[in-house]
């Protein structure tokens, strides 16, 4: 009976862990088509800024993201700029200013993340970019879990998601030109004008690895319903097949060497233990006599000393030989 319940418990825990892995996104283990990508080096809170100007309004949107973990209350809740939710991984913070100067709005909305208290799903989907465009290397990551009503607050809320194309670039870490959480804290201490200047500088940087592509209402996969999709391009060496393969080979080599040392140590330990047990039971040995080849082990320091002395004498003899030879 205990075995039966134990088996059920093990099966249930395994199923739950598998389900949890399917619902969340682990940036360190992105597996697709027998390829493995580790994007954990891109962790941290980052920002990307976008301005959309129309005849009726100027909309400044800051997209805050951390692909490896939840944003937390510090990054996701910004007081007057709005609250997005601490269990989200990507949020948008909007400052919308009508051209007539009336009715400015500030609000936040979630794009990717879990529901309150960690429920819900991010529904991660992975695609190698090479299968979409043979000339492009990398991996596409699709993440869900957000909702958005529209910049004008018209109509009902629709689902929101993100599509991030991690493109292979061997010369980039992926962190070049990014606005981090520390930059935001420094900018928040200044005026709104100074904050905008800093963001504009980041937006104009040609060295930036993360690029905004679009945030639009698109036709989704679920029953043809429309959803808002944030599309980003992220250039990084961690999306290169060659980089990941070399990393895995280095890891395998180090693993083999480690196992070789462990096995060698276990073999020596087993030999000493078994030999000591045999000497104790067969000959009643004690102390150093317990060890197999105890006399040889005791003589090792002296043998080493004699060998060093012999080498030194040989070198001294070769160095002191003169330039004359016997007749």
From TrEMBL:
Give residue ranges for domain MRH. 25-242
Residue ranges spanning the membrane: these are 254-274
Name the InterPro entries on file: Autophagy-rel_prot_27, Man6P_isomerase_rcpt-bd_dom_sf, MRH_dom
Q: Where is the composition biased (Basic and acidic residues)?
A: 190-204
Stretches the record annotates as Disordered: 173-204
Q: Gene3D superfamilies, from UniProt?
A: Mannose-6-phosphate receptor binding domain
**Ranges of biased composition (kind: Acidic residues):** 179-189
Report which superkingdom the organism of origin falls in.
Eukaryota
Q: Where in the cell is it found?
A: Cytoplasmic vesicle membrane; Golgi apparatus membrane; Mitochondrion membrane; Preautophagosomal structure membrane
Q: Which residues form the signal peptide?
A: 1-22
Biological process terms from the Gene Ontology for this record are: autophagy; protein transport
Database matches in Pfam families: ATG27
Predominantly, its location class is: membrane
- The keyword Membrane is annotated on this UniProt entry: yes
Q: Which UniProt keywords apply?
A: Autophagy, Cytoplasmic vesicle, Disulfide bond, Golgi apparatus, Membrane, Mitochondrion, Protein transport, Signal, Transmembrane, Transmembrane helix, Transport
User: Which Gene Ontology cellular component annotation is one that this UniProt entry carries?
Assistant: phagophore assembly site membrane
This protein's membrane topology, according to the annotation, is:
Single-pass type I membrane protein; Single-pass membrane protein
| PANTHER family xrefs | AUTOPHAGY-RELATED PROTEIN 27, MANNOSE-6-PHOSPHATE RECEPTOR FAMILY MEMBER
Family from the record: Belongs to the ATG27 family.
- Put simply, this protein is called Autophagy-related protein 27
Q: What organism is listed for this UniProt entry?
A: Penicillium diatomitis
């Amino acid at each position: 009976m205990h075995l039966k319940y134990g088996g059920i418990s093990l099966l249930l825990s395994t199923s739950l862990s598998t389900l949890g892995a399917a619902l969340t996104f682990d940036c360190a283990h992105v597996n697709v088509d027998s390829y493995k990508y580790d994007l954990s080096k891109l962790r941290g809170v980052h920002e990307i800024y976008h301005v959309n100007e129309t005849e009726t309004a100027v909309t400044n949107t800051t997209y805050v993201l951390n692909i490896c973990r939840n944003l937390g209350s510090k990054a996701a809740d910004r007081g007057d700029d709005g609250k997005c939710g601490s269990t989200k991984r990507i949020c948008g913070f909007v400052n919308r200013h009508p051209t007539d100067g009336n009715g400015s709005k500030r609000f936040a909305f979630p794009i990717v993340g879990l529901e309150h208290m960690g429920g819900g799903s991010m529904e991660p989907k992975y695609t190698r970019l090479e299968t979409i465009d043979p000339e492009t290397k990398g991996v596409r990551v699709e993440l869900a879990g957000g909702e958005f009503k529209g910049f004008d607050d018209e109509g009902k809320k629709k689902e929101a998601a993100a599509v991030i194309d991690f493109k292979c670039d061997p010369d980039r870490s992926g962190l070049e030109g990014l606005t981090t959480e520390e930059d935001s804290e420094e900018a928040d201490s200044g005026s709104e004008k100074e904050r905008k200047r800093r963001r504009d500088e980041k937006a104009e940087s040609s060295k930036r690895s993360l690029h905004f592509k679009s945030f639009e209402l698109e036709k989704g996969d679920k029953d043809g319903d429309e959803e808002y999709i944030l599309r980003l391009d992220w250039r990084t060496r961690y999306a290169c097949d060659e980089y990941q393969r070399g990393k895995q080979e280095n890891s395998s080599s180090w693993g083999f060497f480690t196992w070789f040392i462990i096995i060698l140590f276990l073999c020596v330990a087993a030999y000493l233990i078994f030999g000591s047990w045999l000497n104790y039971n067969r000959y009643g040995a004690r102390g150093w006599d317990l060890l197999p080849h105890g006399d040889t082990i005791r003589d090792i320091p002296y043998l080493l000393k004699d060998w060093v002395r012999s080498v030194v004498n040989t070198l001294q003899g070769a160095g002191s030989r003169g330039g004359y030879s016997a007749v």
